[in-house]
Amino acid sequence: MAKHYIEDEKFERKQFNSEPLPALEFENCSFHYCDFTDCDLSGYKFMDCEFHGCNMSLVKCDKTALRNVKFNQCKMLGWRFDLCNDFGLSFRFEGCQLNHSSFHQLKIKKTVFIDTQLREVDFSSCDLSGSIFDSCDLSDALFENTVLIQADFRTAIHYHIDPEMNQIKKARFSLSGVEGLLRKYQIEIV
Length: 190
Hints:
Helices cover 2% and strands 18% of the residues. It is an all-beta fold. The strands form two sheets. A seven-stranded parallel β-sheet has the order 2-4-6-8-9-10-11, with no helix packed on it. Strands 1-3-5-7 form a four-stranded parallel β-sheet, with no helix packed on it.
């Protein structure tokens, strides 16, 4: 029978897609090279946890609590972060693949994305104020009615952000990335 709460444990190379998680709440736990593919983590709570090298694609996360969670080198295709429990929602991503995921309407200020693939990710109506997109690929990511005040895109690539449809006051962009702000005007920058 599964425990309700686990604290300060390290899980390595577990196949959670074929065996159930041992608890519903995890605090200060780390997961290394575990497989969560297609798992239903709905209603689970992860507080101050770290996931490293995990395959977490197509995970169901309805009302999942993610509070101060770090994802490092994880494959997380198709995540619906917009279905997670938004109370205290906070996370950091480094070296991850988040393609085809959704952050629609979330308030996730100051979120850090480092060297992360964010292809075709939905950031519409999201508050990303003060967030950092360091060396991220934002190919076909959707920014519509998105709050990007003081966000940092200086090393991000392949983004297309319409300044008329998003709040970009004091956001930072590199000179080479200006094309991503002017795409809709079909002008040539040489």
